[in-house]
Amino acid sequence: MKIYRYAGGLFIIAFLMVGVQSGIAASLSDMAKEAQKALGGSAGGLSNDEITAGLKEALQVGTDKAVSLVSKPDGFFKNPAIKIPVPESVQKVEKLLRTAGYGEKVDAFELSMNRAAERAAPEAKSIFLDAISDMNFDDAQKILNGRDNEATLYFEDKTSAQLQKVFKPIIKDAMGEVGVTQSYQELNDKITSLPFGKSTSFDLDQYVTDGALKGLFKMLAEQERQIRTQPAARVTDLLKKVFAAQ
What we know:
Elements: H1 7-21, H2 28-38, H3 48-71, H4 88-91, H5 94-99, H6 103-120, H7 124-133, H8 137-145, H9 150-178, H10 180-193, H11 204-229, H12 237-243
Helix pairs in contact: 1-3, 1-11, 3-7, 3-8, 3-11, 6-9, 6-10, 6-11, 7-9, 9-11
């Protein structure tokens, strides 16, 4: 298969590598020039294996960054895009709870759920690395030529089931340590004491696990979007090493 068919894909890889590694914004035309320079002026001489290896390295950097962002303190809690809110059943009576003097309990409950998600997030790194390792050339080609969130969709398909399995027990333990279960029970007891209040019992572990994974994939998609559409001006040594046509 002639390598020129993947020239467009190579530029996407260049954007991936550079966008992750640098925070200096540049125009698309500037990035194209830098990527072309890094690629030695053409895509000639690069094998399918080299293309796949380059994409794997780019995705490894990107997933590492996404996981690091959500697993740091307040990675979930202070990011409105992925913050795990109190369950809908609590939201419905939140105003009454705050009026009754339970505002601090509501806040503590919400904080503790997000702390549990932040605690579990680092476990995603090795699972993502396995998915990257298993990637073949067809997978790489689909990502290179696909939608702006094609890599994220790949990870969702390949890792969601395992992430659920790994995250849920970690979140269960973390919620016990940071007080989620106790805070929720206190709120539930108060809700049932309110006029027309009903118990809000449900699978809290699953709720937080689902929220953690939703937030993680949302961050992956955002990183991928930025990498594809907001390339940087500096070309990294890694990009040159993998893609420069000698």
